[in-house]
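Researcher: Can you fold this with PBG in place?
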Amino acid sequence: MKDIQFKRHRRLRRTESIRALVRETYLRTEDLIYPIFVVEGEKIKNPVASMPGVHQVSLDYLTEEMEELVNLGIKSVIVFGVPAEKDDVGSQAYHEEGIVQRAIRQIKEEVPSLAVIADTCLCQFTDHGHCGIVRDGDIANDESLTYITKTAVTQAEAGADVIAPSNMMDGFVAAIRRGLDEAGYSHIPVMSYAVKYASSFYGPFRDAAHSSPQFGDRRAYQMDPSNRLEALREAESDVEEGADFLIVKPALSYLDIIREVKDRFHLPLVAYNVSGEYSMIKAAAQNGWVNEEEIVLEKLTSMKRAGADLIITYFAKDAAKWLNQ
Ligand code: PBG
C-alpha cells in the first residue's frame, strides 16, 4: 500500500510550553465587565435565587463590593438599578436621586479607578416592565427615546464613564448621542446593545432586576434569534448613529454573530454572557456534573476567539480569581 502523506499537527501540542508558544487567544481579567444590581434600602445583600453567587446590594455594601473587584484586577462594572417604586414612564430611571444615579456617584467618589458603565433602559423602572413607554398596548418608539435620553444624561451627570443603552428602540444611539452632546458630555462614549435578541436566556436576570414584562413579551423590539442579516443592519445603523462600542447579546448561542460583526465593523466589540448562560453552568457545577473553572474559562475564551474584545459576565469575579492563580 502506498504511503499516505499527512501533516503532523501534534508537534505543536506536545508540551505545555510549546502549546503556550502557539496559543492564539488570551482571556485577561481586564477584558471582564462585572454586572451589579443595586437596590434601595440598607444592609441588603439579597441572593438572587436563580443566579447562585449573585446578589442585589444596597448602597452601604456597594463600596466594599467594588473594592473587592479592584483587588481582583477587574476594571469596570455595569450598573443595574432595582428601584423601590415603579410607574408608567419609569421616572426613577432618570431621577437625579434614582438608585442608579446614587450608585454611580458613590462608586466614582469612593472607588474612582473603576470604569462605571450605566445600563440605560426603562424596564426595571416601569410598572408594566417594558423597555419603553406603552401607548395603546404598543411600545411607542419615538416617545420612549425622550425618556431614555433623559436617563442617559442624568447617568452622565452622576459621573458614568460609559452609557450602555439596552432598550432596543430605533434611533436610541442617535438620540442619546445628541442628548449627551447638548448637555456637555460629548466625551462620554456610548456602548450600544446594538444586537440584542429576544432571548429566553434572560430569564434569571429578570428575577434579579425585577424587570419581567407584565403583559406580552419583548419580541416587537428585541430581535428574532433566527436572524443574521438583521444583526448586521442593527450594527450598521448604530455605527452610523455614533456608537463607540457594539454589544452582541446573548453571547454563547450567538458566537457566529459576534464573528460577523467583528469582521465588518471596527469598533470595540462586547459580548454579553447573559444570566441564563451563567445559571446553567452554576446549576450543573453545583450538581458536580461539570468542572466549573474549566468550563467557564473555556466558554469565555471562546467568546474572545469569536471576536469579542470585552465580556460582560457574572463570572467576572470567579474568572479573575482563576486567572490570577
Ligand atoms: C434590560 C436588560 C436585560 C438584560 C440586560 N439589560 C433584560 C431584558 O432585556 O429582558 C439581560 C441580562 C441578562 O440576562 O443577563 N433591558
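Model: Folded with PBG in place. The chain has eleven helices and twelve strands.
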